[in-house]
Design brief:
single chain; 278 residues; alpha/beta; Rossmann fold; four-stranded parallel β-sheet; two-stranded antiparallel ribbon; 14 helices; 6 strands; globular
Length: 278
Amino acid sequence: MPMMTPAIQQAIAEFNPHPNDVILASFPKTGTTWLKSLLFSIINYSSRDSLVKNNPHALIPFLENDVYGESSKPISIMSNDTTRIFNTHIPYQLLGKNIESSGCRVVYITRNPKDTLNSLWHFVNKWEMTNVAPWGMEEAVEKFCHGIVPDGPYYEHVLGYRIASFENPDKVFFVTYEELRKDTVTHVKRLAEFLSCPFADDDKKVEEIVKSCSFEVLSSHEVNKCDDLQAWFPVSNKSFFRQGTMGDHKKYLSEEAIEKIDALTKEKFHKCGFIYGI
């Protein structure tokens, strides 16, 4: 988005991660809020109750807004032995050099393109700035297919981090929203191992994290049901919790739109060997 461009440029120019930092990277509306809660709980297990009174976005700063935007706050100066967590929607093609030079770890989540578009469409229409002129679904499909949506082309965004995960699997963890939903326990264990957390083999602790970070539990907290606006964007806390389901796009996308997106998915993903999204 044009209004975020200066902050994104500043982040690319100035962000120097510590070796122990963790970057949660994602395209918008692919499971970011949920994964924030999981990562926070894994890394800060003893403080996971903070999620009861804090929206996940308040606990993990958004790099291009909280750290470098107009609402930015100073990055906490901690030793290189301390794990900091940041979130970003910046493509790997732009942020990769910062990441590679630091040796920090990246966790990337992606989601079925049709569900991503559907969730993005609902989310954009909750922005205060869209109250006058709602974003139509037909226009949203066209924009999505041409890569003219917040944070740029979806397919290139996903492939950038997927390729990085193949080239450097010890530093880039790639997971799909669908995998995480279908077997959350297994993937939380994998995440804990990737992040070198000592409780990785403690099934009870893993199950506690999975339960406390479930959509049902998180969405029931008062802080996530309120109309309070995020400091970095004109959208309320409750807007981050709509349904969290898979396949909801079928209620909103026409058959023609689904066929169009599926054809693009085959061209962009399947031809690269990533059989996903259909």
